[in-house]
Predict the 3D structure of the following.
Amino acid sequence: MSNKIEAIKKEKDGLAVKQELEKFAAMGWENIPEADRDVRLKWLGIFFRPVTPGRFMMRLRVPNGILTSQQLRTLGEIVDRYGENGNGDITTRQNIQIRGLPIEDIPEIIERLQACGLTSVQSGMDNVRNLTGSPVAGIDAAELIDTRPLIMKLQAMITNNGQGNPEFSNLPRKFNIAIEGGRDNSVHAEINDVAFVPAYREGRLGFNVLVGGFFSARRCAAAIPLDAWVPPDDAVVQLSRAILEIFRDHGLRGNRQKARLMWLIDEWGIEKFRAAVAAKLPFELLSAAPKDEIDWDKRDHLGVHRQKQPRLNYVGLHVPVGRLYAPDFYELARLAQVYGQSEVRLTVEQNVIIPHVPDAVLPSLLREPLLSRFRPEPPPLERALVSCTGAQFCNFALIETKNRALALARWLDQQLVLPQPVRIHWTGCPNSCGQPQVADIGLMGTKTRRNGETVDAVDLYMGGKVGKDAKLGTCVKKAIPCDELPEVLRQLLIEHFGAQPISLDTPPA
Ligand code: SRM
Ligand code: SF4
């Protein structure tokens, strides 16, 4: 049995469009054959957006979420050209997407990105997605393993040094990999197809391995132990390669709803799967360490924190729902250059960290005008807000998310005093890009009927736990009309999260 996407891939590999990009740019978006425009271009990270036809989105790869000031400036310059159509988002995979790009300009954009060490290759469709790692790798005082060199090696292997890797250009479906090096599971290991979490085995520090975590409209599953431990070296790359080869060669391809890794593990059983992985490795695959080292609650990395390096700090800035415009890219680049070492980190909460800020200049950084918008200490609900793209740009969306999420969080922050941040995640449809299942309160877009009319609504998720003993939340109430949400959430926060009411203003429209 096959499906439309498998047929498209069989006819011509996704990566083949690399050679045709100049031709597509010359012919204009209306004339590009549909399968190339809507599907295969995603192998280069180029997404046709039916909501804004002619204005493409580009999804980059930002391994471990690390960007330089030069890269930020280049991204700013690229989106700047497109006026009000140009913007960018920090994604839930610690990554950047930029928008508003006409196809005519994309070959030149790719050259500019390459010149500053960025690639968008194989960031969409049936490829390995952005590799997530601890956002404070190398600077976290309590770090166990620095994930940066491992992630860079893995990125080089998977993308063939950013040039595109035909070995992994035809997976049955998307594939997510995360490497955690700290104690707080900052990468959401449990929702990745493969995740490495720090663990001591017989006194040696390495990683226990989890497999099969994923979200889809059909099913959500937390990753399960592979019963494997690897040292923090090339073994991580070799094991990832072995799992990818097995997924590529044996993963289910008939029904795209059942093509993620966990479905293969279900069909084979974890023992057979493990044996197949072990048989591919040039070393003996050891059994898992008895326990992992994830023993902290998840940090959000906002505010000022001391680094492991003396007299240096990292400063986490809250970027409301991850949205960046050209001046924001420029200003972040400047702040990182003036106050740090020309580097920023992105987080899966869609925020940004400026590392390496010396004690002496910290007060001046905290007085910078950008920090009144990208605040180090925002109010508790806005602080922990995450939202997927939603209807503004995503054609799968059943509702608008980012603007609505922000307006509601801001209103609730004015209404209530919260004893601690409450993590609210919005996602515009059941694909769950905004990860409502990891949130304290998850909101998934849907439609409902009220008085004979179809209205925007959300399904309410609760019980998601992150960090130590992470657990997926579940749907507790279906189809709450969005205009009833202010009051519903207000009550929920009072009843379940210790919120105290402070005023009785009118809810946002
Ligand atoms: Fe996603 C498809 C946006 C993280 C599960 N996701 C899409 C598309 C490409 C659909 C489309 O073509 O319009 C969305 C692009 C909209 C746009 O214009 O921005 C989209 N996904 C996103 C981002 C940008 C959400 C965000 O605002 O941050 C995230 C980009 C991550 C990245 O940098 O690579 C994003 N998507 C996720 C995650 C979260 C994660 O990885 O931790 C998930 C759930 C985890 C998982 O995949 O297991 C996720 N996206 C999906 C799915 C369901 C996959 C499945 O197996 O069924 C789809 C639909 C699909 O692939 O068919 C999807
Ligand atoms: Fe689009 Fe749905 Fe993903 Fe949101 S969850 S970005 S609406 S596909």
